[in-house]
């Protein structure tokens, strides 16, 4: 029996309602497709979407007052350490009053040092000298992303027995569908959420 990934963007019930399916005979297949398709879309977007906590991620300091983390939108920061010696003791913990989340559309995932001495604050230069624990992602998945995922699931479901098929194991069962990547129409729907790169 397939189990829905806790980070999936849609539920089995939402998927069945979108596809107009009332029976339960394909529940395992649909659950497997949800898991596969949302994971493929996250790979395409270059980020994880559903809110979760990222523990002790490490970043290189560059001598500026800015840190850009992998995941966004940032909703909370538990701790930031900056220690070129990599000991990360309490003396290297940055006070929460000395930084702010500056996570706007133009600069997703950005944190800036901004205490009383903001002009003199900067992250030390070093390799993996910054350690941060933070929460990022959406508690409520945007409808655009849900629609894109449901469109992808529907496409994969409808093409699973087409010509040029492949067999793949998903959720402990064998699923067969037409060899295909993410449909262009799905990419067009979700592209606004693709990870920003400099």
Distance between the termini: 43 Å
- What structural category arises from helix and sheet content? alpha+beta
Strand content: 25-35%
Total individual domains? 2
**Rg over CA atoms:** 21 Å
- Biggest sheet features: 3 strands, antiparallel
With strands numbered from the N-terminus, the spatial order across the biggest sheet is 1-6-3
Overall pLDDT confidence: 88
H and E order = HHEEEEEEHEEH
Q: Which shape, going by the Cα principal axes? A: elongated
| Number of helices, where a helix is a run of at least 4 consecutive DSSP H or I residues | 4
Low-confidence stretches are none
In which range does the helix fraction lie?
25-40%
Annotation, overall tally of beta strands: 8
Q: What does the secondary structure layout of this molecule look like, with pairings?
A:
Elements: H1 12-19, H2 27-45, E1 52-61, E2 66-68, E3 74-82, E4 99-101, E5 110-113, E6 126-136, H3 143-159, E7 165-170, E8 173-178, H4 184-190
Antiparallel strand pairs: 1-6, 2-5, 3-6, 4-5, 7-8
Helix pairs in contact: 2-3, 3-4
Nutshell version of this structure?
This protein is α+β, with helices and mostly antiparallel strands and 198 residues long.
């Amino acid at each position: 029996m397939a189990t829905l990934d806790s980070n999936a963007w849609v539920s089995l019930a939402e998927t069945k309602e979108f596809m107009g399916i009332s029976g339960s005979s394909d529940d395992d297949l649909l659950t497997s497709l949800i898991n596969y398709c949302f994971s493929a879309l996250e790979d395409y977007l270059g980020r994880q979407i559903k809110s979760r906590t990222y523990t002790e991620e490490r970043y290189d300091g560059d001598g500026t007052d800015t840190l850009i983390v992998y995941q966004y939108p940032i909703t909370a920061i538990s701790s930031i350490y900056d220690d070129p010696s990599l000991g990360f003791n309490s003396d290297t913990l940055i006070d929460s009053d000395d930084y702010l989340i500056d996570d706007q559309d133009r600069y997703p995932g950005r944190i800036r040092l901004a205490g009383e001495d903001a002009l003199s604050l900067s992250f030390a230069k070093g390799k993996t000298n910054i350690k941060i624990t933070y929460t990022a992602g959406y508690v409520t998945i945007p409808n655009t992303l849900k629609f894109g995922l449901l469109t992808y699931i529907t496409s994969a479901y409808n093409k699973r027995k087409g010509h040029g098929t492949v067999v793949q194991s998903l959720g402990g069962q064998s699923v067969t569908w037409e060899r295909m990547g993410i449909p262009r129409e799905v990419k067009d729907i979700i592209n606004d959420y693709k990870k920003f790169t400099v």
